[in-house]
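Handout, page 2. Input:
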Amino acid sequence: MLSARRSRVRILLAAGVVLATVAVAAPSAGAATSKADTALQKALDAFVKRPDAPAGISVVVQRADAPQQFTAGYGDVATKTPFGLTDAMRLASVAKAFSGAAAMSAVADGKLTLDSTVGEILPQQSATWAKVTLAQLLQHTSGIPDFSKSPAFAEAVGAALETPQPPAQLPTYVANDPLNFPSGTKYGYSNTDNILVGLMVSAVDGTSYEQSLQARVYTPFGLTNTSLPVGVEMPTPFTHGYQPDPPNADEDVSEVIAAGWSWASGGVVSSPKDANLFARNYASGKETDAATKKLQFTFRPGKSEPPGPGTNSAGLGIFRYQTSCGTVYGHTGNTPGYTQFIASTSDGTRSAVVSINGQMTPERNPKIFPALRAIYGLAVCSALKG
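Output:
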C-alpha cells in the first residue's frame, strides 16, 4: 500500500507538483442570517456534491469579536467528521506569507533592509543571485528559477519522501541556472525566493528559522496551533488531505511528503482558527512598522498560485485581491491534499479563510476551480458585507 502510494506521489512530483452522503455542519458562533452568509453556505453545499469535488471545505469568516465557521463535506472521510476550527492542516504556499511576516519584522527592527542582498546575507549561495534584494525575493521579481520545478529535485523527493534535505540545499537545484530575467524587471512566482527569505531571516537572527517564526510571528500574533515541522507527521487532531485515485477511493496523502521539502515556501502547518488570526495580524502590519508596511503594500500585476478572487496584484510577501465586494490582502497555496486562501482587510478587522482537503489549481482542475475561486469571492463578501 505504502509503496503504491509513494509511486503515485512521485508521478505527481515529476509532473511539477510540489508543493456519497454529504455532511453539512452549521456555522459556529451564530446562524447564517445575512444574504452573503446564506449565499456562501449554499455554494459550499453545492460544491461538495460535485463529482470532482474534494472531500470537504471550510470557510472561516470574522467581522466581529469571534470567528464564524461554515463547512460542508468531511475533514476526515474515515470518521465522517467535518473540518474542525482548531484541527491542523497544511497551509501550502500560505507559508510564504509567514516568511514575509518574519522578514518584515526583521526589517522593522533593523536586522535586515529591503535592499539587503543575497550576497550580503547568504554569501554561500549562488553568485548569480548576489545582487538580488530582499524586496525582489518577497515580490517574486528576483528572476531566480523555481527549484521545485527541477527534475533533479523531483527525483530527490521521490527517492526520500519522508526525509528532506537541509533547507540551505534546496536552492542548489537551480544554483547553476541563469536568471529567468534581469532581477526587478518582471514578476515570476518562484518557490526559491521564499527559501532564501527564510535563510536570510535565520542568518540575521542567529537562530533556526522555526525559532525566528516563534519569536517574530507565532507569539506576537497569538498563534497556538501553528508550526513548521520537518517530517511527514501531523499534529492531532488534523484535517486529512486527499488525492484523487480513480477508480479507487481518494487516497489519504496527509502524511506522505515531509514538510521540510518545501520548508519556508510551503511547510507551515496551522489550523483554520490560527490561519484566520494570522491573516488579520499580517494584513494590519502588527509585526512591522507603518513605514515598512507602506513599502510592503506597493503592488504590481501578479497572481498568487493558485489565483485568488478578483484582480490579483503582488506586494512584498502579500497579495492584493480586488473583488466586487471590496479589497482584501493575503495569500493562497496548494500542495498535495490541500488548497488554501487567507485574506483580511488592511486594518485587520474583517477576514476570511477558505480551506479544502484536496489540491486544486486552474491547470489541474479546469472545470471545478472556477467554482472554488467563486467561493473565495463569496467568503470575502461574507466578511465585508455580512
